[in-house]
Amino acid sequence: MTSTHHSAPAVRLTGLLLLTSLTTMVAAAVIVVPSGLTLNPADPAATLAAVNARPGLHLLELGLDVIGWLALTGAGLLMAARARVTGPHLALLPAGLLAAAGLAGLLHDAGNLALTQLAADPADPAAITVTRAVMLVAKWMVNLAGLLWVAALASATFFTTLPAGLRRAGVVAALSGLAAVALPWTTGTAGPSPMLEQVGYVLHLPVMIWYGVLGWRELGGRTYVS
């Protein structure tokens, strides 16, 4: 396997989108965690109060997250288009899974956006009841997005031509990401605690970094052929 340099705009654009996804999602997390805007379905009243107190910050974080998921979707679609034209055709699988992960992430953000209006009256019992249902769906939607993202990475290590080091790193990152998406399934009816969610984010970080590295290489017009 040898590396070659391609000036194709699609390759560079894919890299730009992957890096955009990484940076905007990390920026969103940097806003959420210290500000207490992590959404907790176990305490919907506190969540509504937090959003009501800082609606601008909530929307800023949400906007960054939306950009990240949109960029991931676009990168997946571009990868699929490239695989369809130049091959290998099996690379359509990880590309499609990556685009699907982006779409699931956008649905997650749609639920979080609905909370902005529900937070107009954080003491309203009806709003609190609806908020819990919305947050539960949003939480499991982001879990699905993470699962699809991990599946995209795992299949990329098998069905695309990668240098050995990047392939090995991909396997390790996929295992870490799999542990992240498995955590909520271990909590039964109680659901994951905010602390467990933070652990999940940390475990998923290698997946994001791996795609960031791939994006950096592609931004330079660098890809790999058999």
In short:
With 226 residues, the protein is mainly alpha-helical. 78% of the residues lie in helices and 4% in strands.
Strand arrangement, largest sheet?
Answer: 1-2
Count helical runs. 7
Structural class by helix and strand composition: mainly alpha
Shape: elongated
**Total domain count:** 1
Radius of gyration: 19 Å
Number of strands: 2
End-to-end separation = 5 Å
Describe the fold and architecture.
By secondary structure, the chain is mainly alpha-helical. The chain has one domain. It is 78% helix and 4% strand. The chain is built from seven helices and two strands; from the N terminus they run βαααααααβ. It has helices at 9-35, 44-53, 55-86, 92-118, 125-159, 164-182, 194-219, and strands at 2-5, 222-225. A two-stranded antiparallel sheet has the order 1-2. The longest helix is centred in the middle third of the chain and has 35 residues, at 125-159. The protein is elongated and about 55 Å long.
Features:
transmembrane, transmembrane helix, 2 strands, 226 residues, disordered N terminus, membrane, mainly alpha, two-stranded antiparallel ribbon
Question: Which helices and strands appear, and what pairs or packs with what?
Answer:
Blueprint (H helix, E strand, L loop, with lengths): L1 E4 L3 H27 L8 H10 L1 H32 L5 H27 L6 H35 L4 H19 L11 H26 L2 E4 L1
Antiparallel strand pairs: 1-2
Helix pairs in contact: 1-3, 1-7, 3-4, 4-5, 5-6, 6-7
